[in-house]
Amino acid sequence: MAIEMIQKLPLFPLQTVLFPGSPLTLHIFEERYRQMIGWCLEHHMPFGILLIREGEEVAEESADPRPTLTYDIGTVAQINANVQLDDGRYIITAVGQRRFRIQYALQRLPYMVASVVLLPEEGSSEALKVAQDLRDSYERFWQSLAAATGFTVKPEELPHDLIEMTYHLADKLQVDNERKQRWLESNVVVRVSDMLAALQQDLALLPSPGRRMSNNPWEGMGSFN
User: Fold this and answer.
1) Which of 82-86, 201-205, 208-212 has the lowest average pLDDT?
2) What gap in Å lies between CA 60 and CA 46, rounded to an integer?
3) Do 114 and 130 have their domain in common?
4) Number of domains in the chain
5) Chain centre to alpha carbon of residue 47
6) What is the rounded distance in angstroms from the CA atom of residue 2 to the CA atom of residue 107?
7) For residue 155, is it within any domain?
8) Domain, as residue range, for 156
9) How many whole angstroms separate alpha carbon 22 and alpha carbon 192?
């Protein structure tokens, strides 16, 4: 797949990782990002979301003057609904489109604008071999959670497309942002393998399906004799 170029993509640093296909709701209240969203809406353009490496999302006048540092790989976000409030704030919903990497900054004030390249999405026969293991582990996770809590929740049907499935699970799994960022940056082989390891770690802490956790903390621990 050829690498594509987007010129002048406005960037929004956040304490979150957005994956392709995932939705995001944002309350835009800082003046510079109001300007950014207004520009995007006027020109029917997306913006880019980057995970913050160091610094804060909002820079007030009294805040630490050091710049916010972000990771170089993020996700293009397309606005699909917006409301502008009377005081100029926006409530928007957006959906992740494609991964990108920053090439170089074009503008830093009032908000950052960069030239970026879109990253290709390539399948892998190696990833396909373990994709079913990932699906099976996800289903076993919900079965084991039901065994632990006594409440049965039918797991959602995962996307059939391998890459869509990995991004969907990456968004759903409860791990820290640094790990999610690694998943965003990784190729599909690494992403599938690492997500499978994360699910298996969670499964190791849960009872097997069909065996509910006991209220007796000593049950199953054997004899001390």
Assistant:
1) 208-212
2) 25
3) no
4) 2
5) 16
6) 26
7) yes
8) 125-204
9) 17
